Amino acid sequence: MLLLTLRKPWNCRFLNYIATETVKNSKGNSYKLRRTNEKFEYYYKRLCPQEEWDEALHAMRQPLPLSFRFTSSSPQSFLLSLFENKFGSNLKRVPWYEPFGYAWQIQGIHRWNLDSDAEIQKNILREWDLGHLYRQELVSMVPVHFLDIQPHHRVLDMCASPGSKTTQALEYLGNDGFLIANEFNKIRVTNLIGNLHKFSSSNAHLTLSEDGRYFPDIVMKDSSILQFDRIVCDVPCSGDGTIRKNPNVWLNWHPARGNERHHLQYSIAARSIELLKPGGIMVYSSCAMNPIENEAVISRLLRDFEGDIFIINPPNAIALNYAQGFVSWDVFDKQMNIHKEYLSGNNNGQISPHLFPPKEDWIREQLLKTMRFQPHFNDDGGFFVAYIKKKNDSLKKISNRKNQNLKRSKNMLLPKTIGSDIFKVKKTLDLLGICHVELEGFFQYTSQYCSKKIRSTSKELLDICQHNPHLNIAGIGNVVLKEESRISSPLTHKFPTSYIHNPLKKKITKRTMYISLVDFKKLLKSEYLSSDEFPRAEEGLIIFVINNDNDGNKVESCLGYIGTSRISLNITPSMREHFCLKYTAF
């Protein structure tokens, strides 16, 4: 028989009775469930080595430990001492995540039992708000970390929201590189832009909202078509690998969820390969454990791009446990029928010929180079990763592809040069002693609501916006200056307090004032101090450089403002809390 109808063999119990418990979903809403699903367990038991199944199922029923990475600009020593004092030996450093910051996992602590400790929850949320740490699963850090992004690379993140991998990739880029982040979902793209503003270490990023399957060609200034050195293709998926942090997977899982997403995943990945430069590398990843969403997609890509792409061997530096990709699997429909091969008209549209394991030996050999991270391997989530390299002499493209969308959305943003404001900006930069800044990368949005904000990005990205009127632009660069409304200030513009990692701050050579740690604590404790305490201070924006009273070394710097009669810090409430916690000895 080519079609096997299984009469509920999954009805058997694999482990003891599972009690009902109260859990929370990804949005924090509470509900009751039992961490069991007969179809799920039957499906994945067939894919798991028999001797590992009990351990695997037990791991999937446990909450996901909390993990995070420090950003390169974070005060790591202070934050580390804060967490070490709280978690002790339960705080484990991830040895392979270097050199841009460090990654950590807190054993015994998961996302929702933080609610029981208001103090540590507040600390983590505050440092996240400041862009100092990003909560991210360890396996989710793998794709970008081992992608070998170089400072000069042109990088595309095809399915970017919420931005964990996007901001991670930006850490590796220098002044000569840039990143384009794409997110088709209009709600998710808003979240992406917020995280880019909060966490990005570079302004050289452009956010688009395009359908990844038909991502438009981008014309460069020299009329060539943009090809990318590196592409992150973390595709939309069923997400059953997140079962430890999203327990609702137990409630609604069935195999057709993977079948339904296969073609979407393939189409996005295929278009990504077309956009990849010969010799470039794309990483395909998903937080699904289903081979239909992973190995079946890779198998189809290898077949359709035969001779043009190949799978790279897993990186030697990776210190996580993983398994080789599958070379065989069963294809189920929603009713749990097994299909041994494709039969046209006998599957209610649920089964396509592309879902089945490859018969070609050369494809099977390639699939063994992909990586499967199972929940019980590293006390983490389920994940799949494949590094795909395009050959240097690649010329092939897939034909019969739907025409690209060349219509710009009415709500999309357009950049414009800062025009007459350039003289005001130059005056501000001169008064702050900021030199060697390329004003060609400064711009404003055409929207009247954004006209008082000066943004910055790379000149190359601005050229892309100018030469590609069809692009649906959702965001470009970051706000680096805002119009100053205080009459007493000699500056026409000021720094936005919410952009913690503003690169212009590091270039200030004038309007700085050295103050003692004692005076800094006074400013932290009070909203403002009398300007009589600093009689020689000039009105306007100031950079306070705080000296340690004991050895005279600089320990901190932050924005402030000197008015006619008072002096205050120009920082966010989160930053004030951060400093207060760091310097508690009032």
From TrEMBL:
<feature type="binding site">
    <location>
        <position position="211"/>
    </location>
    <ligand>
        <name>S-adenosyl-L-methionine</name>
    </ligand>
</feature>
<feature type="binding site">
    <location>
        <position position="234"/>
    </location>
    <ligand>
        <name>S-adenosyl-L-methionine</name>
    </ligand>
</feature>
<dbReference type="InterPro" id="IPR049560">
    <property type="entry name" value="MeTrfase_RsmB-F_NOP2_cat"/>
</dbReference>
<dbReference type="InterPro" id="IPR029063">
    <property type="entry name" value="SAM-dependent_MTases_sf"/>
</dbReference>
<dbReference type="InterPro" id="IPR023267">
    <property type="entry name" value="RCMT"/>
</dbReference>
<dbReference type="GO" id="GO:0003723">
    <property type="term" value="F:RNA binding"/>
</dbReference>
<keyword id="KW-0808">Transferase</keyword>
<feature type="active site" description="Nucleophile">
    <location>
        <position position="287"/>
    </location>
</feature>
<keyword id="KW-0694">RNA-binding</keyword>
<dbReference type="Pfam" id="PF01189">
    <property type="entry name" value="Methyltr_RsmB-F"/>
</dbReference>
<feature type="domain" description="SAM-dependent MTase RsmB/NOP-type">
    <location>
        <begin position="56"/>
        <end position="391"/>
    </location>
</feature>
<protein>
    <recommendedName>
        <fullName>SAM-dependent MTase RsmB/NOP-type domain-containing protein</fullName>
    </recommendedName>
</protein>
<dbReference type="InterPro" id="IPR001678">
    <property type="entry name" value="MeTrfase_RsmB-F_NOP2_dom"/>
</dbReference>
<dbReference type="GO" id="GO:0001510">
    <property type="term" value="P:RNA methylation"/>
</dbReference>
<dbReference type="GO" id="GO:0008173">
    <property type="term" value="F:RNA methyltransferase activity"/>
</dbReference>
<keyword id="KW-0949">S-adenosyl-L-methionine</keyword>
<comment type="similarity">
    <text>Belongs to the class I-like SAM-binding methyltransferase superfamily. RsmB/NOP family.</text>
</comment>
<keyword id="KW-0489">Methyltransferase</keyword>
<feature type="binding site">
    <location>
        <position position="183"/>
    </location>
    <ligand>
        <name>S-adenosyl-L-methionine</name>
    </ligand>
</feature>
